[in-house]
TrEMBL record:
Protein name per its UniProtKB record: Tellurite resistance protein TerC
Family: Belongs to the TerC family.
Entries under Pfam families matching the protein: TerC
Transmembrane spans: 6-22, 34-56, 76-99, 111-133, 139-156, 202-226, 232-252, 264-283, 289-308
Keywords assigned by UniProt, alphabetized: Membrane, Transmembrane, Transmembrane helix
Coiled-coil region(s): none
Membrane-protein topology: Multi-pass membrane protein
Protein source organism: Zobellia uliginosa
Broad class of where this protein is predominantly found: membrane
Compartment(s): Membrane
Length: 318
């Protein structure tokens, strides 16, 4: 139990350091700063694999799935890469939300900070119940597998391309129960207007991002549970990937048009993980194969996006 407490305390320390020291004064996050922080968070996450090895070799963490230290490290890295790759799709949606509510770049980090804090709580609960379900009802893994295949098919069709946050059910419900201002008021989430409390677009964007992350977690949590049902590996890899999401957003949100083929990478990853779940009792794939498929799919999507010129888009612009 103390391992969990120390890990959560470490995450709280990182978040406090982020908001209270490095981003104490609000400023626009430039690409160079975002690249540095992305590299830092990825390095921290990969370095944590050494902690995973030590914990599982020393027996200082519960090991309900009887993993060897080497297997625990491979499962952790594979899970982390799955969460990181699926987070890229989240970046696209966050960019649309910020654009729709006209959130200035100056305050976007503040929204993402509180959004990620809430995401840690929600994902922790979802991981807890997800692991409990798989442990108690083995057949649930087939449900998760089919759900991931359906998500991959939906993503391949591109059903979510016309997503408009202001047309969403969430936004309509917030507007119905709470007054919303049409203009920004600095970094405030709430203001007093004519004697009444009112939410600013900043708060609305935060709520929509928070609930959108819950929807993304419905894909990512089953995906990582296909790799391992060890609760500490699932939780730590998931949370460390989320922590890097903010800097990743500021790094690649300005280059969204270049990553045209990344969705196909995510389709392959989700389909592979879904099939892995469906055939988990018939075929046992080696850990390195899962890691290789995820890594190659992600690199292929990024490489194709950067190397293949966007001829059609250029023709349409002319």
């Amino acid at each position: 139990m103390w391992v969990w407490i120390l890990f959560i305390a470490l995450i709280i320390f990182f978040l406090a350091l982020d908001l209270g020291v490095f981003n104490k004064h609000e400023h626009v996050i430039k690409s160079k700063e975002a690249a540095i922080w992305t590299a830092i968070w990825v390095s921290v996450a990969l370095a944590f694999s050494g902690v995973i090895y030590w914990l599982f070799s020393s027996g200082m963490v519960e090991n309900p799935t009887n993993l060897t230290p080497n297997k625990a490290v491979l499962k952790y890295i594979t899970g982390y890469l799955i969460e990181l790759s699926l987070s890229i799709d989240n970046v696209f949606v966050i960019a649309v939300i910020f654009s729709s509510f006209k959130i200035p770049a100056l305050y976007q980090h503040r929204v993402l900070f509180w959004g990620i804090l809430g995401a840690i709580v929600f994902r922790g609960l979802m991981i807890f119940f997800g692991v409990a379900l798989i442990t108690k009802f083995e057949w649930i893994i087939y449900v998760f597998g089919l759900f991931l295949l359906w998500t991959a098919y939906k993503m391949l069709k591109g059903d979510d391309e016309d997503f408009n946050p202001k047309d969403s059910w969430v936004f309509k419900q917030i507007r119905r129960v709470y007054p919303i201002t049409s203009t920004m008021h600095g970094h405030d989430f709430f203001i007093k207007k004519r004697g009444l409390n009112a939410a600013t677009p900043l708060f609305v964007a935060l709520v929509v991002i928070e609930l959108t992350d819950v929807l993304f977690a419905l894909d990512s949590i089953p995906a990582i549970l296909a790799i391992t049902a060890d609760p500490f590996i699932v939780f730590s890899s998931n949370i460390l990937a989320i922590l890097g999401l903010r800097s990743m957003y500021f790094l690649i949100s300005r280059m969204l048009a270049k990553f045209r083929f990344i969705n196909y990478s995510l389709v392959v990853i989700l389909a592979f993980v879904g099939l892995k779940m469906l055939f988990s009792h018939q075929i046992e794939l080696p850990e390195w194969l899962s890691l290789a498929v995820i890594s190659v799919s992600l690199l292929a999507g990024i490489g194709a996006s950067l190397l293949i010129p966007a001829k059609e888009e250029e023709g349409n612009e002319e």
